[in-house]
Amino acid sequence: MFKGAFSIWGRDMLVLRRSIISELVSVIAYPLTLYLAFGFGLKGYITDVNGVPYPLFIAPGLISMTAVNAAFDESSWSMWFHRKVQRTIEEYRVTPVTVYDIVIGKIFSGFSQGAVKGTVVFLVILLLTPFRIEYAHLPMYLLCIALSSMTFSCLGTICGTVIDKPENIGRVQSVVIVPLIFMAGIFFPLSSYPPSILPLIQLLPTTAVFEGARDALLTGAIPSQYLVNLVLSAALCFTIAVYTFNRKMAE
Amino acid sequence: MTHAITLHDITKSYDGFTAVDEFSLEVQRGTVFGLLGPNGAGKTTLIKILTTLMRPTLGDAFVEGHSVLTAGKEVRRMIGVVPQENNLDRYLTARENLALHAKLHGMRPAAYNPRIDELLDMTGLAARQYDFPDTFSGGMQRRLVVARALVHEPRVLFLDEPTTGLDPQSRRSLWDHIRGLRRSMTVFLTTHYMDEADALCDRIMIMDHGKTLADGTAGELKDAFSRAHTYQVEFRRDADRYQGVLAGLPFVKGVERDGSLFQITLADEESIKPLMDHLTGPDIRRICLKEPTLEDVFISLTGEKVRE
């Protein structure tokens, strides 16, 4: 079962291996720049947030942001490219694999890209900066990253499945994904929001991603409301992604 | 069971347009079957239904006895597909493209590696197996797509306009490969090229507007639609005068002129004698019966108007 999904995932990992250096350079540059610019640039103005040094406050979010962005990018562009440009999805569909194999293979490719790139950014920040963590907290943090990458990989798969024009994928990223990320408190505490808005912000899956990641890394536990949010978001997005792809292929 | 492919009253409609209309067909196992038709005739829709990429609105189709509606996975185990456009993975080498296809068919390396070696040799791509398809010529890419479709040794091979866009040498080379497959598997081919159908197919079906127009061997189709009463006449002189004469003869159904060469379609074969009575022997350079080509048959059935 899911042998086809494994083969498709294997293909994507082979392609990733081939271009790993250039991929990682481009992936590391952005969060590292943000970390250096905000972490060091604002350190003189914001010494700590709720008792947490500012560079430490933003680091978990930047690592998570790298992972979810990579998961979304890989899933959306890869699905679109294989469906519309290279038409390899059609090649997969005339073999005995099912549409579930294809979509699950692609979702796991996005997830894997997110996990690999997030891990590398984590290691680079660890290597180049004074950022340190309690290693006992790592499993919960990795769980948070895994669930987040899964959610964003599914969202990317949905976009790559239903969107035909590439510029519209870019628009979804800039109008939906980036605001969701930046509203979720990577760079500032959620307490900065007016109390009337705060409950809505706390319901965002991205808030669960970044707040959950920060809490996991700093305390070793993901608050239950965020954990439930992460699990439900991942499950719901996975279901919608599989359903959407199945429907699209049946057209 | 001697039929590799069976279609029962297949209809496919979308948005009020009927692409295939109650289409039935049986293709004998081990033969090369050619489906001809102008753009929009319904050929690709039929291939998509037979390869389970599309579900018919009505009817059912069977490949090696498996229904495309209820046993899609079994159908896909039996088939190899060469689509109209090369859908090779440009990020994988030629060999990796074949290996991925084999894995998707559940083959193990011990089974697919020797088979891939054999196919790369057969298609003349062995020396380029570690190169990416983007660096290949159109003919080489096409050969690689054919090789990919054969990795799992399918029982039915679908070729959707396999030589479109290829130069004459590449076309001939691909024809040789297809000829080599005859008898070992059933080949279902669509094409725009009449010479291709003539050269490769054991049986040809011409379709248009989703329906069958003619069916038979190339020879049978030419005979059935033979323009036995069409003659080519070339005049030495007075071509203009003869054009007027021919236009006035009641048994002349059509005259096409190219300089001093006329193509004259008569009402029936008996009209040749009265025609000769109106022509003066020394004015005629040559007169001959026009042998029909498959293209004549195709045009006479589907019309000369260009399709969008």
Automatic annotation (TrEMBL), chain A:
Pfam families xref list: ABC2_membrane
Main location: membrane
Keywords: Cell membrane, Membrane, Transmembrane, Transmembrane helix, Transport
Subcellular location per the Swiss-Prot or TrEMBL entry: Cell membrane; Membrane
Domain of life from the UniProt record: Bacteria
Residue intervals passing through the bilayer: 20-42, 54-72, 114-133, 139-163, 175-193, 226-245
Domain annotation ABC transmembrane type-2: ranges: 22-248
Membrane topology, from the record: Multi-pass membrane protein
InterPro entries per UniProt: ABC2_TM, ABC2_TM_bact-type, ABC_2_transport, Nod_factor_ABC_transporter
Signal peptide annotation: none
Protein family per UniProt: Belongs to the ABC-2 integral membrane protein family.
Protein name: Transport permease protein
Source organism of this protein record: Geomonas diazotrophica
Lineage, broadest ranks: Bacteria, Pseudomonadati, Thermodesulfobacteriota, Desulfuromonadia, Geobacterales
Automatic annotation (TrEMBL), chain B:
Protein name, per record: ABC transporter ATP-binding protein
Pfam families on file: ABC_tran (PF00005), DrrA1-3_C (PF13732)
Organism per entry: Geomonas diazotrophica
ATP-binding keyword on record: yes
UniProt-listed InterPro entries: AAA+_ATPase (IPR003593), ABC_transporter-like_ATP-bd (IPR003439), ABC_transporter-like_CS (IPR017871), DrrA1/2-like_C (IPR025302)
Sorted UniProt keywords: ATP-binding, Nucleotide-binding, Transport
Domain of life: Bacteria
Location of the ABC transporter domain: 5-234
